[in-house]
Specification:
Layout: H1 26-33, E1 39-52, H2 63-68, H3 79-82, E2 93-97, E3 101-103, H4 127-131, E4 135-137, E5 145-151, H5 167-180, E6 186-193, E7 196-202, H6 204-207, E8 210-219, E9 223-224, E10 227-228, E11 233-241, E12 245-253, H7 260-276, E13 283-284, E14 287-288, E15 300-306, H8 316-327, E16 348-350, E17 365-367, H9 401-408, H10 413-419, E18 429-430, E19 462-468, H11 469-495, H12 497-510, E20 542-545, E21 551-561, E22 573-584, H13 586-604, E23 611-615, E24 634-639, E25 645-653, E26 659-664, E27 666-667, E28 674-675, E29 680-685, H14 693-696, E30 702-705, E31 710-717, H15 722-729, E32 736-743, E33 749-757, H16 766-769, H17 777-785, H18 803-825, H19 853-865, H20 880-897, H21 905-914, H22 924-938, H23 942-962, H24 967-974, E34 977-978, E35 984-985, H25 1001-1022, H26 1033-1048
Parallel strand pairs: 1-5, 12-15, 24-33
Antiparallel strand pairs: 1-22, 2-3, 2-4, 5-7, 6-7, 8-11, 9-10, 11-12, 13-14, 15-19, 16-17, 18-19, 20-21, 21-22, 23-25, 25-31, 26-30, 26-32, 27-28, 29-31, 32-33, 34-35
Helix pairs in contact: 1-13, 11-12, 18-20, 18-23, 19-20, 20-25, 21-22, 25-26
Length: 1053
Amino acid sequence: MSSTNRDPSISSEPEPVEETASNLHSLSRAVHARRPEYVKSHRIRIKVGSWNVAGCPGTDKDLASWFVDGKGVDPQLDAKLARTNVSENSEAVEATDNGNSKVQTSEESRVSSGTQRELNSSAEPTQEEKEDPTVRLLGGEKVGLYVLGLQEIVDLNIVTQTFYSDLRAIAKWQDALEAALPKGYTLVASEQLVGLLLLIYASPEVAETISNESTVSVGTGIYGLLGYWGNKGGITSRIVLGETTRLAFTNCHLASGHDQASLDRRCWDYNRIMTQTKFTPVNTGGVIEDEGEKLGDEDFAFWLGDLNFRLDGLPGEDIRRLLMLHTRGEYDLSKKQTGEAFSEDGVIVLRNNEDDGSEGSNTPGMISREASFDKDSSDENAELPDPDDFIPDPHDDPASIQTTINSLLPHDQLQRIIKERKAFHEGWHEGDITFLPTYKYDVGTVGLFDSSEKQRAPSWCDRILYRTRADVSRYEKKCQDEIEAKKKDEEMKQRGIDKAVDADESVLFDYDPATDSSADNLSYGDPTYDYDEYDEGENTLEHVITKEGFVDKISLDIYTSHQRIMSSDHKPLVAMFTLEYDAVVPELKAKVYAEVARELDRVENEGRPGVTVIIDGKDSVDKNRSVADGSEGIDFGEIGFLRRESRSLTIANTGGVSAKFNFVEKPSVLDDVTKHPPWLNFKFVRSLLHDDEEAQDSLGNEITLEPGETVNAVIEAHVHDLAHVRALNDETAQLEDVLILRVIDGRDHFIPIKATWIPTCFGRSLEELIRVPRDGGIRALVKERQEGGSIPYTMEVHKSSPSELFKLTEVVESLAERVIADENMLEEAKVPRDKPAWPFDKDSWQTANSADHEELRAAIIEALEEDRPVMDSIGADVLALKRLEIVSEVLLLFLRSMPDGIVTTALWAKIEQALPGLGDAKTPQDADAHRSAVLDILSTAPYCNISFVFLTSMLTRVANELAPLSKDELDALSSRRPRAGGKRSLSFRGRGSGLREGVDELAIQRRLAWERRAAEVFGDAICRAPGLLGAGAKERRALEERMRGVVEVFLRT
């Protein structure tokens, strides 16, 4: 599979490079024309499974056995598996032969993207396989893509019939599936819609070729005031394999019920899912398509789930009684299995697998008592037996399970609505149904149908359908032909009967079978199927021309139920597909890209410096740009506060002379100065392919490249300025800019930069924060309002103080206690008591330079934005001292980011007017008076008052933990009389001069220093004193003393 399958109608010759250098689109066209050079053929198996677990407990425990290991199928209750001999070349079935040997397929080795392995191999049977002589479906590492659709993973009662995603339910099923899958399989898509869950996992080789995943949920359940509830509906995930092949997987649960109204509702559900499912535009090589895709635009589509179609026109009791004859073995099926003589003159058909490597058809060898027609027979002139000598086809055997199934299928609602073109008529296919109905069984039984009071009739409710782009095209052509035929009929009627007769005669003799599309897209119930009595029913690869013009191939290898899975009233359903597709090889594409870019620039101007800029990031700003000069731009996607995001550029010297270039600062319109955007950083590095620090070091601001050389530029987005954060929250600023790459003596390159801001709780006022709902935080509020900007003060108040402040202060207190405990047990956890105001003074931090500092800080901020517990955002393995420093940093950052602070400008003006000597109390009584006055003023703003109390109470408790004093020492500290300028002297009541016994003066001094410095830090963080920035040095110091005094008087109560 090294060659590329290409539609012959599409030219594969490389496009010649035009001599006109001004053609901006020549690069993309030239690279696209050379696609056969970097597109190679791959082959994978896709395993699609569907199961309605009916909310039954323990169903997740069975997931590994049937979906991954392939266990649970019952050959006796599946007409196709019942006649599958263990020596057959079945591409999706593994079997243990009499418990002694394990026979696998002729292509049993794993076939996955990017690798070409031998397809013929054998394996020694394990002890488990010897003891379990049953048929198993292919699984494990031999499957490249696992697609699982579950229904009713939660109880669908009226209380829970709403759109929601239960993370616990998702985690349970993901854990169960990941535990069963081979190591290295990657989650591609995961989406829940109430009871529906769609999971897609890919092997390591396949996962790296998947892109453009887009998942959409459409609810179709009960209609209420909030819209369509999600107890029914569909989840569809679109992925692109190898940048060439689009796959869509839909997991659905349609309306239940047996009556006509329920059937009509199911058709309505299907059509709503089809029309409402819209995917994001496909991004190929940084170029985004103009419009998003819908269902029908993909190359291959798979529809699975509980479709809920029933059997019409038959009493449920009759269906149940008829099927129970098979499940109980009353037809004695075991005597009619392939491999046993049916009569004295019987002929047994076995698959001839001695030449597994042959490309031709698998011609069956014949074993008979009268003659041998083995391929090694010396009688070359022996005639093949008459077709009447073959084993009777199960379809013709009145006692076979297939005959029973065939008698029920004409009553299947799905077949009827397809024929009536109400749903699933647009090219959808289904494999042959050779298995028992999947619904409804008594839980815990293999084949006992519903014995409850309702005694529901057995039905094939669970289905897996598929279609290709070719199927859709045939259906659309058929519809167009019908429209044209109708127009012809109307024209003939208008011309008169005589002319119509002439036209009919003309049609009779002008008929061309090659152009007749009436047999295309045959649906259930169409009688015009081809029949060949020698046809063994082998799967063939259907050729499909993809949207990108390549010829892909797909076949359905197996379609069956796992009858022996008994934990639900539905039986799991599985379909195995083989897909051959063409995929882009990134390394080869990059090579072609560089070659084309180099040639274009050489033609443009060999004597002028020129560079080519390639955007290595996934997203581009301008959808219509395709030239590799950086003008397509960079889209960073979503960016949050203090989260770093980076994109890379590859800059190649594609000219004929040396090129010198650098990023230049953009002139400002307001003050005519040049400056870089405050939220962007960039540097030139040697390589992005190596992790060593030397390769990532900056090469300087100006780079010189010789012809053919390349260099990487890393563009980093990092929003850290608080004023910028406030503007982004208020939507008065946007994350948009333009970088200018200046090529000396050459052409400048303008690179648009764009990012989407994630609203944050930082940079918002206290009045805004108390209006954020308790569950979900600021992100949930923005999502609910579906708009950004500031939070209106007209909204309802949900809290008396910001929950972010409460969480942070609570965690600081808890960690302070933990730090003291760790200090007593761990040598490396020593508390820096000699540093005043630790852990709030940034100069005292010991772990701020650790490698994971920014990552941990961002995790705390994200937890606050999503209203999650702060402690859970940092792993328990992180030292408590380190956690305390990071949480303290985030607390101070949060306080400083509040525009109005806690002590607002208005409150500060009142405090200054009432307490001009604040911070210079002479006696303890003065301090008490200052406290009372401050509280009286703050009480006029209750929310500020409560937040202030939270904060000062926390500081007091932390001070008692980190700088503890005995009762005598506290009494001594409280009795000190402050001197002018805020200094204190020792003076104790009733003792005169000297120190009391048992009083540690050093401990008192440490406490005083801690309180003073902590008050300075938090006074500056929470007080908004006007004129502070423009004040002189002396006035500034006086203001800072008064701000410190507001906090300090509350640190010892």
